[in-house]
Amino acid sequence: MKRVLIGGGTGFIGTRLSNLLKDSGYTVTIISRMPGLGRVTWHEVEKHGIKEPTTAIVNLCGQNVLDPTRRWTPGFKQNVWNSRINTSASLVRAISHASPELKPEVFINISGVSNYKPDNKKVYTEYDECKKYDYMSELCIEWEKAATIDKSLGVRNVKLRTGVVLGREGGMIKSLYLPFFFGAGGPVCEGNQPLPWIHIDDLCELIMFSIENKNVDGVLNAVAPDIITNKDFAKAFGRALWRPALIPLPEFVVNFMFSQERAVLLTTGAKIEPKRTIETGFKYQYPKIYDACRSESKLFLF
Ligand SMILES: NC(=O)c1ccc[n+]([C@@H]2O[C@H](COP(=O)([O-])OP(=O)(O)OC[C@H]3O[C@@H](n4cnc5c(N)ncnc54)[C@H](OP(=O)(O)O)[C@@H]3O)[C@@H](O)[C@H]2O)c1
């Protein structure tokens, strides 16, 4: 039996991934803070480790950084940090202690693209060196470190640096849907900042591709090959909804709403190429921004 354990599998990406894996014949067990059918808790993983033969472990856990209802307090920052670093470290420990018949073939950890310092000119690939330059970059770098498995264990270790995930049920599209629907959408600031992005179906397919292909290992940029700006996204999403997208969200409003340290996720960006991802042979279903927006523009979720 092919079994996948998904940390944070109850979330936006996790729900779509679980459905894809189940439709493809996998048994999915979710690791959650809340017990339930088809779930194990983080506490159980910490205490008992991996209990059944497992094909792959995927970590998608993380407190939503851009939750507008939460102030950027030291306590909230700690939640953001712990929900990523501690869960990845806990899975690495469970894998290290698992007996050979239970050990997964691959551990896949998702993180963000803040490793790459915002720059409107340079195009980054997975081969570029990354150094800490602010809180978000430190978070991404430490997250990848926490998700690192000792090579001697023989478990493939895929680290997905993921751009903004475009899907109707969550993330940026869910937050922006109503303003765009009522014709009040537009770019963030002047909109010239790069916006690395990926369609949710491509991200989930890339995770399944990483599970099934033994040549896939190491860092992969989980971004679409179409390098765009925030303004390009606003235009494409507006067009997909048959609406204008001309009203910019001023920088001072974004900084006021989120506080500057996390607002950089919206007001700045880097140009990122998925060089290694393409080298693995992965094929995108939505390489172009308009097609991605079009496919996730329906009003109702059913
Ligand atoms: N969405 C994007 O555009 C995007 C882009 C780049 C990277 N990512 C990363 O991808 C991962 C998944 O994203 P998503 O949009 O699917 O996230 P999501 O829906 O907001 O949440 C994922 C799961 O994380 C768990 N979680 C939330 N807060 C937690 C906390 N304080 N402590 C422990 N667990 C917590 C929850 O599971 P339980 O409630 O079941 O415990 C939740 O279902 C995140 O790490 C995110 O940073 C997302």
TrEMBL record:
Q: Where is each DUF1731 domain found?
A: 249-294
Q: Which residues form the NAD-dependent epimerase/dehydratase domain?
A: 4-215
Domain of life, per UniProt, equals Eukaryota
Return the InterPro entries for the record: DUF1731, Epimerase_deHydtase, NAD(P)-bd_dom_sf, SDR39U1
Q: Which SUPFAM superfamilies match?
A: NAD(P)-binding Rossmann-fold domains (SSF51735)
UniProt xrefs under Pfam families: DUF1731, Epimerase
What protein is this chain from? Epimerase family protein SDR39U1
What's the source species for this entry? Chironomus riparius
Q: What is the lineage of its organism?
A: Eukaryota, Metazoa, Ecdysozoa, Arthropoda, Hexapoda
